[in-house]
């Protein structure tokens, strides 16, 4: 199938780029002796789970639906963490998840015995209260007042007999130096409680497949934990699995002028790449530069009625006109899992590009997908 046969907007996931990431993750897993899981919250394109399963040990979930998807479509180990579990869902969750991580001593007391009785692994998420981020408070689990993880002040050693492991997740798109800093804080506060436990989960946010990521330091840190405490170590990256492996193809609908040239696209920041507004985040555009860097500068905006549905300002070598293609890069992560139909916007189709460059239309959405979300 040629690209001209597919109406924009649509996501493309590239097999060659995906496999490159997976091979790096497998090398790290083998060298460090750790187990790496897919964080489904970042990427849940289950049609390619059979490929991912060849490289990764399993998947992580944030609740019932993700856990079921991981169990049924991915296989391997299925881990689940939720800030608070719904009592009416917990029995069903026991059918899907192998590892249950609880957010607080109260949740552990309430649900931990049920999980243990069902033969599941049980863990507690802790908060080492060590923030290594700047400017991303929305993604910082160690921010002041965070609801995520148990602080040392709230930790109850009497619950240790219920625990198989501890979990922390504090990073976002960071290198292994941030992990090293966090581990020092974690060990100072919680290291003594690892004795006798089976595993330690270091969460996600590790940018392992980025070109300049220090993988040797990560391997050294993981090996050190295994040797010092005798625990299995888990990593659960999401972004690193699909980094730079996806694209979002869009088209220009019209160019208007209001103090500057504005290209209105058929793709929306609010509906198709919400991190642009939440972070805020500037997605890369293939062949484009910073404002005024190239000959023609445009503000790229979406087609919704939201005044702030703006992707950003970019410059191009040639003018944009109606029908011009604009290709956004790094669009596999936190895109398909976050898309919405605000304003009745159609969801982008999902396309797979195989190693030979052939395109397959995996999923196309229509009016019923919009209507079925409503009452």
Question: How do the strands and helices of this protein lay out in sequence?
Answer:
Layout: E1 10-14, H1 15-32, E2 35-39, H2 49-52, E3 58-61, H3 64-74, E4 77-81, H4 87-96, E5 99-102, H5 105-117, E6 121-125, E7 165-167, H6 176-190, E8 199-201, H7 215-229, E9 232-235, H8 239-242, E10 246-257, E11 261-265, H9 269-272, H10 275-278, E12 296-301, E13 310-316, E14 325-329, E15 349-353, E16 359-363, H11 367-371
Parallel strand pairs: 1-15, 2-3, 2-9, 3-4, 4-5, 5-6, 6-7, 7-8, 8-9, 11-12
Antiparallel strand pairs: 1-10, 10-11, 10-14, 12-13, 15-16
Quick overview of this protein structure:
The protein has 375 residues and is of the alpha/beta class. The chain is built from eleven helices and 16 strands. The longest helix is centred in the N-terminal third of the chain and has 18 residues, at 15-32.
Describe the structure.
This protein has 11 helices and 16 strands. Helix 1 packs parallel to helix 7. The longest helix is centred in the first third of the chain and has 18 residues, at 15-32. The mean pLDDT is 96. Strands 1, 10, 11, 12, 13, 14, 15 and 16 form an 8-stranded mixed sheet that branches. With 375 residues, the protein is an alpha/beta fold. The radius of gyration is 22 Å and the shape is globular.
Keyphrases for this structure?
8-stranded mixed β-sheet; 11 helices; alpha/beta; 375 residues; globular; 27% helix; 8-stranded parallel beta barrel
Note the main sheet.
Answer: 8 strands, mixed
Distance between the termini: 36 Å
Q: What is the gyration radius calculated from CA atoms?
A: 22 Å
Give the SSE string: EHEHEHEHEHEEHEHEHEEHHEEEEEH
Number of helices: 11
**Unreliable residue stretches:** none
The helix fraction, in percent, is: 25-40%
Q: Which class of secondary structure composition applies to the elements?
A: alpha/beta
Overall strand count: 16
Shape: globular
Beta-strand content = 15-25%
- Arithmetic mean pLDDT: 96
């Amino acid at each position: 199938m040629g690209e001209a046969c597919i109406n924009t907007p649509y996501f493309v996931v590239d097999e060659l780029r995906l496999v490159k990431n997976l091979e790096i993750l497998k090398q790290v897993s083998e060298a460090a002796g750790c187990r790496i899981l897919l964080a489904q919250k970042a990427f849940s394109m289950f049609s390619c789970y059979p490929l991912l399963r060849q490289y990764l040990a399993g998947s992580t979930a944030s609740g019932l639906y993700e856990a079921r998807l991981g169990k049924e479509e991915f296989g391997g180990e299925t881990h689940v963490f939720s800030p608070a579990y719904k009592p009416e869902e917990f029995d069903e969750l026991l059918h899907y998840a192998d590892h249950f991580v609880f957010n607080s001593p109260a949740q552990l007391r309430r649900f931990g015995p049920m999980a243990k009785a069902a033969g599941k692994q049980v863990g507690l998420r802790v908060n080492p209260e060590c923030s290594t981020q700047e400017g991303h408070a929305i993604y910082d689990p160690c921010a002041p007042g965070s609801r995520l993880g148990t602080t040392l002040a709230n930790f109850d050693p009497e619950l240790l007999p219920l625990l198989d492991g501890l979990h922390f997740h504090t990073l976002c798109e960071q290198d292994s130096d941030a992990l090293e800093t966090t581990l020092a804080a974690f060990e100072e506060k919680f290291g003594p409680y690892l004795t006798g436990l089976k595993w330690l989960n270091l969460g996600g946010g590790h940018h392992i497949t980025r070109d300049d990521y220090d993988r040797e330091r990560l391997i050294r840190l993981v090996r050190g934990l295994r040797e010092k405490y005798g625990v299995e170590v888990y990593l659960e990256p999401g972004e690193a699995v699909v980094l730079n492996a996806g694209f979002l193809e869009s088209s220009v609908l019209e160019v208007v002028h209001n103090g500057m040239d504005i290209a209105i696209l058929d793709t929306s920041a609010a509906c198709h790449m919400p991190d642009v507004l939440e972070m805020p985040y500037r997605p890369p555009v293939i062949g484009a530069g910073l404002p005024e860097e190239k000959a023609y500068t445009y503000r790229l905006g979406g087609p919704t009625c939201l005044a702030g549905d703006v992707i950003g300002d970019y410059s191009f070598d040639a003018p944009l006109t109606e029908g011009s293609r604009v290709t956004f890069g790094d669009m596999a992560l936190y895109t398909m899992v976050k898309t919405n139909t605000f304003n009745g916007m159609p969801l982008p189709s999902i396309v797979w590009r195989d190693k030979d460059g052939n395109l397959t239309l995996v999923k196309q959405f229509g009016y019923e997908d919009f209507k079925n979300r409503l009452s």
